[in-house]
Design a protein that fits this description.
The chain is α/β, with parallel strands linked by helices. It is built from 9 helices and 12 strands. Strand 1, helix 1 and strand 2 (about 30-35) form a beta-alpha-beta unit. The longest helix is centred in the N-terminal third of the chain and has 21 residues, at about 85-105. It binds fe (iii) ion (2 copies) and zinc ion (ZN). Its cofactor is Zn(2+).
Length: about 280
């Protein structure tokens, strides 16, 4: 069965119930949320009664909690060695893991970070240090999914080798997985027309079983542009056929697919995009 959804809002008042209702309004059977605004770290406390209601709503509508994804805010940057920023990011990530665990979800997607001019090697060693510090103190079984990045600015994680080096440095390897993002892969220079070859490459370098989430986005920019601007499904340089091939890839059939495509004239495009995908997918 195709496991597909989009990112949805999470508001203080409606809480997780509101997120589930939004996902259901798109015809989704999973979703991804930020526990607050993606750009900031203001977080309200979690209402457990609301979470309970959300779970019964999910159960009634066939949403498996193990397919739900949380995305950490962009403001976390584990690659920055500046002590106050480094500590802030580590603390926030620890808190975020606790929130994901309180929700009862399994996966937290994280951008590895930007080395801000320190160089990739220093950036990676900062990320490794941070992940070890955070995971050392955290006894949940929430898995951190490192997202493959477009290589915009000084982003780390723009190729499978960089992600692999990070995983190699982490002690609790079972707590680390990977989130592929189709727009980011295209912009990083991976030609998704040859998706099977790319998946084989990923398997050789990291191992396909580490892939726990896929962000399905088209791209506004050409292969290798290092831009990271998402486009609506079928309207970008990746194209509908290729995206459907990725969605239908048998080896990834149990992996949740999440849309992060842009709003059109202030409206979420997810209902239409999900039904378009369902009409073309063989899953
Ligand atoms: Fe992301
Ligand atoms: Fe993404
Ligand atoms: Zn992106």
């Amino acid at each position: 069965m195709l496991i597909i959804g989009s990112h949805v809002g999470y508001k203080k008042d409606s809480g997780l119930v509101g997120s589930v209702e939004e996902a259901l309004s798109y015809g989704a059977n999973t979703f991804m949320l930020y526990t607050g605004a993606p750009q900031n770290t203001i977080r309200s406390s979690i209402n457990l009664d609301n979470v309970k209601k959300a779970y019964s709503l999910m159960k009634d509508n066939g949403i498996d909690k193990d397919n739900v994804i949380v995305h950490a805010p962009y403001i976390i940057n584990l690659a920055n060695g500046d002590l106050s920023k480094f500590n802030f990011s580590c603390n926030f990530l620890s808190e975020e893991l606790k929130r994901v665990d309180t929700f009862g979800f399994k996966y937290l997607v994280l951008h590895p970070g930007s080395h801000v001019g320190l160089g990739v090697d220093v950036g990676i060693s900062n990320i490794v240090k941070a992940l070890n510090l955070v995971l050392d103190k955290d006894n949940s079984d929430v898995m951190i999914l490192l997202e493959t990045m477009a290589g915009k600015g000084s982003e780390v994680g723009r190729c499978f080798e960089e992600i692999k080096t990070i995983i190699d440095g982490v002690s609790k390897k079972g707590r680390i997985g990977v989130c592929l993002d189709t727009c980011h892969l295209n912009d990083a220079g991976y030609d998704l027309n040859n998706f099977n070859d790319i998946l084989d490459l990923f398997d050789k370098i990291i191992g396909i079983d580490k892939i726990k989430c896929i962000h399905i986005n088209d791209s506004k920019n050409i292969l290798g542009s290092h831009k990271d601007r998402h486009e609506n499904i079928g309207k970008g340089t990746i194209g509908l056929d290729t995206l459907i091939k990725i969605i239908d890839c048998d080896k990834l059939k149990d992996v949740p697919k999440i849309l992060e495509t842009p709003y059109i004239d202030g409206h979420a495009p997810y209902k239409e995009e999900i039904s378009l995908i369902r009409s073309l997918s063989k899953q």
